[in-house]
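Give me structure tokens for this 123-residue protein.
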Amino acid sequence: MKKQKILFWSTTTLIALFEGLMPALTSQSEMAKEGITHLGYPLYFGNALVIFKVLGVLALIIPQMPKRIKEWAYAGFAFDFIFAAISHGEVDGVNGQTFIPFIALAILGVSYFNFHKINPIRK
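Here you go.
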């Protein structure tokens, strides 16, 4: 159980840093705005994305959050990573940057798997 808790918190912390804290701190930078427009999205989409990422991170890291909300947060991040890979692949062609979201998806998967190991579903 201790191993699962360590894996859960370390992977969840990585997700929180890269999907919550970094976007919240850098979303208004010129580089972030250029990145959103380069992919063909309007700037307001980037702002909405940051809000939902921060809310998703809060759902994952707050222990008292209902499990159903955590499930939605995991699903939202999974969709985010998959669509990020698709967007990069469509705009820039398939290259190394296309696969970076899949690394984040794997980290999210480890968090999700270990969340369910330490919080089994009771019937």
